[in-house]
Amino acid sequence: MKKFLWFFLAVIVMALVWYLFLKPSDYTIRFEVKTFPGAINQTIKYWDKTLDAVTPAMQEGSIYEVHQKLRFNDSIHSYAWEIVPINDSLSKVIVNVRDEQHSLANKLQVPFSDTDFEKRSRKTVLDLMENIEDHINKFKVTIVGEDEIPEKYFAYVPVEGTQIQKARGMMQNLSFVSQVILENQAQLNGPPMIQVTDWNMETDSLKYNFGHPIIRSEKLPIDTEIQYKRIFKKRALKAVYHGNYITSDRAWYALLDYAKKNNIEVEPNPVEVFFNNPNMGGDELEWKAEIYMPIKESNE
Asked: From which domain of life does this come (predicted)?
C-alpha cells in the first residue's frame, strides 16, 4: 500500500510539474470547419494582418501548422494552430494559446474559473471562425480528377509576387499582352492563363507566367517584354474553381490534399485557365477557372 501511495504521489507531482512548467499552452480550443486545410491556413495568415501582431502568422514546416504572436494590452499571446484534415470537406482546428508574461498564473486559475485570458482567447478564435465562414461562402472548388494540361503556344510575361497579389499582377499585364497580340494580328487560341514556375508555400510567394494562348505567328515581335513558349500536354489533376480570382489558389491546396489522399505525386506548379473577365463584374461565384496540378512522371 505504501509503495502504491508513493507511486501515486510521484505521478501527481510529475503531472503537476508538466502542467505548470512544461505544457506549452495555457488554454486549448478545438473546433471544426467545413473546408480543407489550405483555405484555413490562408485565412489565418490574412486575418493576422488585421490584428496587432508581434510576430506575423507563419506556417511551421507544413500548411497544417501556423504560429503567430498577438499583443493584447500589456500581454503577448502566442497562438499555435494545428489543422487536421478529417475528409475532403471537413477539418479540425486545435488552437494552443499561451500568455508569455503570465503563463504560470493562467495555468493556476484556468481549471477553477473563467479568466479574462480564456474569454479573450475564445473571442479571438471566434473572430477567426467568422472570417473562415465568410471566406468559404465566397468560393467553390470541385475536384474533377485526372486530366491533361492542354498543349498551347503561349505569349506571356513573367511576374513575381505573393499569392494575394496574383490577380493584381494579371490585371496589370492583361492590356499590354492583349494589345501586342492584337496589333500584330495574332490569333488567340483560348482564354488567359497562368503557369506557376515557383511556389514558396512558407512565404506565399510566386513566380509565374501570365498571358494568352495563341496560334503561332511569325508576325509577333521579339523585341518586347513578351516571351513565347510551347506548353506541352501533361498529365495533371484538375479542379474547377468558382469565385474571385484573387483566391483561386484555394483550388491548389484542394488538389494537393486530393493528391496526398490518393498517393499521387504531383509538382507544385499549377496552371490556371480563366474564363471570365473580372472587369465585367457580376456574381463572383459565377466566375470560372480551370486549375491543373501537374502529376510527376515516374521517370522524373
From this structure: Bacteria
